[in-house]
Write a structure and sequence with these properties.
By secondary structure, the chain is mostly beta strands. The protein contains no helices and 21 strands.
């Protein structure tokens, strides 16, 4: 037996059922039934039931249901860039406040806002800038931080040797081993480099060395290795925040499909079997693969989670 409280709104006249919390005080606030309704809820009645289900609120023609949404999104740009691409998912055209790394307000005159849609914007600055942007839903006070979302960057290492920048890749064809793949780098100030890297079948700097194949969701892939720094890149142009892309024809049978991952200190026991980075998610817009402090990292936001875990062969 459990108690269900039926709340009713004094304006839209609709009801909602919520399970009673016996150890708390029952309170009623503003309407959470109809979107944009300014009414208040009051307790209509109490239902005692053994049913595990709560009856859904009936739909009313002409009224939209209320859905709770985030009210603040905080975006952090770690490296200096002239353009920030922000996906806030606030479902609105928000108010924007921008701060530099010293927490000083950046005046509106120093950047231009481009609204892509209700969930994406870009900020274009007059110079290269790092810092934070806070986006607020317009009907919410700036002092309100309830349900705030932060875009603090979480990363996973992709390279397993700081001197060579060893990376482990997958391809669908054994013919790719011994072939070359083109890598493109774009520094935070816009300088672009291209270089060709050879895919080898063995590399003692990778914890994946010794394996030749993996199986992901019943598909077999061949393991190869790339040494990032042994392929003609000008190291002086590879600064923190430099973006890495694979410049290839993805439809080719020898195309690189994934990057494999491992945790520091990159021993065999440190390989990651439940996540991979798909090459299709690596581009300049997402900045999903980048260089930082002599190592290559990926943004965890763009990792593909695997279930079941990949199988090594």
């Amino acid at each position: 037996m459990r108690d269900i409280i039926v709340y009713k709104c004094d304006v839209c006249d609709r009801e909602v059922q919520l399970q009673r919390k016996p150890r708390s005080i029952e309170t009623a606030g503003r309407c959470i039934i109809t979107a944009k309704c300014r009414g208040k809820l009051y307790i209509e009645r109490l239902i005692k039931t053994t049913s595990p289900f709560i009856q859904r609120t009936e739909e009313v023609v002409g009224l939209d249901d209320f859905y709770q949404r985030n009210k603040l999104f905080k975006f952090t740009q770690l490296y200096e860039k002239s353009t920030w691409s922000i996906e806030h998912n606030l479902e609105s055209f928000p108010i924007i406040s921008v701060y530099d790394t010293d927490k000083n307000v950046i005046p509106d005159s120093e950047f231009q806002v481009t609204i892509i849609d209700k969930n994406k914007i870009t900020l274009k600055f007059n110079t290269f800038v790092s810092g934070t942007a806070e986006l607020y839903v317009r009907e919410v006070s700036k002092t309100t931080t309830v349900a705030a979302v932060s875009d603090e960057l979480e990363t996973t290492p992709v390279s397993s040797n700081a001197l060579l920048g060893t990376m482990t890749v997958l391809t669908r064809s054994a013919a790719a081993i011994g072939s070359s793949v083109s890598l493109k780098t774009t520094s935070s100030n816009g300088q672009v480099q291209f270089s060709s890297a050879t895919i080898t079948n063995a590399n003692g700097n990778s914890p994946w060395s010794g394996y030749t194949k993996v199986v992901i969701r019943n598909v077999t892939y061949y393991i190869g290795f790339i040494d990032f720094f042994s392929n003609g890149f000008n190291a002086s142009l590879i600064s923190n925040g430099t973006i890495i892309e694979v410049d290839q024809d993805d439809s080719s049978s020898t195309a690189v499909t994934h990057f494999l991952l491992a945790d520091d200190p990159f021993d065999r026991a440190d390989i990651i079997r439940d996540k991979v980075l798909e090459v299709s998610k690596i581009n300049a817009t997402t900045s999903s693969l980048f260089f930082d402090n002599d190592e290559v990292f990926c943004n965890n936001k763009y990792l593909t989670k695997l279930y079941p875990n990949l199988i090594t062969i």
